[in-house]
Amino acid sequence: MTVGSKFMQIVNVNLGERSYPIFIGNGLLEESLLLDPFLGQGRIVIITNDVVAPLYLERVKALLAPRECSEIILPDGESHKTLASISVIYDQLMAGKFDRQTKLIALGGGVIGDITGFVAATFQRGISFIQIPTTLLAQVDSSVGGKTGVNHPLGKNMIGAFYQPLCVLADTRVLDTLPEREIKAGLAEVIKYGLINDASFFTWLAENASQLLLLEGSTLAQAITTCCQSKANLVAVDEKEAGIRTLLNLGHTFGHAIETASGYGVWLHGETVAMGMVMAADLSMRLGWIEQTDAAKIRAVLEQNFSMSVVPPADIEIEQYLDLMSSDKKAELGKTRFVLYKAIGEAVVAGDIERQMLEQTLTAGENLCR
User: How far apart are CA 47 and CA 198, in angstroms?
Assistant: First the structure.
């Protein structure tokens, strides 16, 4: 559909009375009427960081005019996704006497979205919020589905809540300011959707890698829309990750361990997901679930088509991996669970993996999937 002079896609997340739209298009930050139905009469607080604020804060304020907006600007980076940052926001909301009619707006990437959502879920036992994601990773994944929270020194995203936004506004034009590293990190999450349940999408991504790396408009919009629709379908049937939504964690059990062991912020989330998806392919191959040729293809698309680093850092010990993975939030009854492959485009959740097989993957290094 069109809004103003812009072409826009709308994906709906169907959760009954908590359903909401995802607006996807180029230049949507210029379309003031889009957010009007969601703002109500309460005060507005924009939560962002010191990298995004100089680029887009004034534009979002203009989008919301004539309403007055307050802002809270946090330091950028995964290392600030902490309870300390949450407390900073609580302090300012309390000092400003903001009430339950307040609307929060998350303007930033996945860190800002997760922090803002957690504050919204908990301030005065729940206030409304809107997602305006400014990274590719956030537009295709973290802004959708209601996962919110912060990291703990012993584990990533271990403190949080499921809490859905009022809407998501994904303006693809803002991605033009992203550094190449952030684009690749986001594309890792895009590729994930093809690997879990859509082999034809995985093939399409491999064929269109160069256009996606250059953020070519129509190709990019198609990829974002496909990912959002895929996630919306899974969230609609399994909002709180009791079953099929767990597939969205492909690569994350390995990836979260790498992020935590290396120190938050050393690797971008999407970078460790890329490593984790290749490690999952290697383990699936060792278990005899997929052929070596398929495991190698997964690695090749990530490494060659998209120029991603897929070999995990060599300084993480096996016992450190095992300890971190055992405390991952996907573990159940003391058992680590992995999302693995039965085929490209067919992921499954698995537990009780033989330690010897797992150790072979954890030590494979450059020989992953070979």
Answer: 35
Q: Tell whether 157 and 285 lie within a shared domain.
A: no
Torsion of CA 368, 353, 335, 269, to 10 degrees: 20
Together in a domain, 141 and 279: no
pLDDT at 5: 42
User: DSSP labels for 184-220?
Assistant: HHHHHHHHHHHHHH-HHHHHHHHHTHHHHHTT-HHHH
The residue behind tokens 């120029």 is: 307
Distance, in Å, from the CA atom of 310 to the CA atom of 302, rounded to the nearest integer, reads 7
Residues marked active site are found at 125, 147, 189, 231, 241, 245, 249, 252, 256, 269
> What are the average pLDDT values for consecutive 10-residue runs of the chain, which has 370 residues?
68 96 96 93 96 97 93 95 96 97 97 97 97 97 95 89 97 96 97 98 98 96 97 96 94 94 93 98 97 98 98 95 80 77 97 91 96
Which one-letter amino acid corresponds to residue 120? A
Phi, psi at 11, each rounded to 5°? -115, 130
Full DSSP string of 67-120:
S-EEEEEEPPSGGG-SHHHHHHHHHHHHHTT--TT-EEEEEESHHHHHHHHHHH
Domain housing 31: 2-176
Same domain, 163 and 40: yes
Alpha-carbon distance values, 181 to 186, 216, 258, 270, 331 (Å): 9, 17, 17, 10, 30
The pairing of beta strand 147-152 with beta strand 155-162 = antiparallel
Q: Quick check: 129 and 154 in contact, CB under 8 A? A: no
Does pTM surpass 0.85?
A: yes
